[in-house]
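thought: fold this chain, then report.
action: predict
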Amino acid sequence: MQSMTEVASQTSGDARASKSQNTDNPGGFVHIPALDGIRGLAILLVLFHHLFWANSNTGSRFFNFVDTLRGSSFVGVNLFFALSGFLITGILIDTLHVPHFFKTFYARRVLRIFPLYYGVLVLLLLFTKPLHLLWNGWQYFFLTYTSNLVLWSRPPLILPHFNINHFWSLQVEEQFYLVWPFVVYRIRKLKTLIRIIIITCIVVLLIRIGLVAARPLLHNIYLPYSPTFSCVDNLLFGCGLCALLRTSVRNRVLKLAPWVFAACALVLLCAAIVNNGLDWEKSFFIPTLGFSLIGIASASLIAMTLRGGSYTEHFFKNKVLRFFGKYSYGLYVYHYSLSESLTTPVRTFVDAHFHSKALGVLVGAIVVTLLSILVALLSYHLFESRFLKLKKYFSYNKRATVANPQVEVSNT
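observation:
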């Protein structure tokens, strides 16, 4: 989303690439270009989902099909989660031996995530009166990274021309990473860690089943999508993949990854045909077992990029996807507010002059995407990079390369 989300985008940071790609140690210090492409795909799916919304009953089979695809592209957030879990767990495992383990991890995490997240919130809060923003108490939940956990009915958040509702995915990641480093540090044994991940994923699936079954009584449309306790398994699938690749079954996992991905994709495709897309709000299967399959498929796709010389690796190493991956955090943060301000006026203008709603949707999405890219570039190079430079004071570089001389610096 870091996040996502790192959301994933969140994990790019100020990494320097290793001179030679070392996929024997994925997710930790070595920089794997194809994973930037995975992050790029994730943000493009999110942009498609948010910017191409339209009437779902156009009378045209083609446009209805496109809208069904759009409605299913929320899986970009799940992909962000899995990638974030994979990369962060690699960093944690590979730095267990370094001094100041927690201080270094959290300092680098804060420098990557907090400046942009809180920068946007502070600006909105400062302009509350002139912009006539109505927070209704939601500012406290956003400031404490907890709005995704508000499960009871509250007055709505009203921010004309702005939209920060998608920040829930960033909150999921930070809540998870408050706990996960302590688990990794305490357990250390990979096999035990893998067992804990499997058990937790099963428990989370059972929680989702219970929430979906009780959905008519709960009256909360975001259940079970946004609360951490019901979606954290998508992060854990990435964590589990990272741990598995450091065991003796590494080669077997990489060999099976395409088959696992294909099996999950086939089941999800069948479910999409039956449910007219991956609509999790009305379906029982999609938000329960379906979410688990999406997470497993995401982790499998990541594993497929680690197969040296594979078509998957080659595809995700292309420059376009890697560009979107590099700036995905800013794109994720800014695009929804830009869409809130520009999409309707652009569509209205195009429709009035060219009498084509479809063209209006396309032009509106292109305009918002291009502007989001520009804002993300300016944000990264003029604002975020100033904080990223401070990571040198919390570097793994000198301390970690003593234990692993083949690599240079962390991916985060």
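thought: worth noting. The two ends are 16 Å apart (CA to CA).
final: tokens above.
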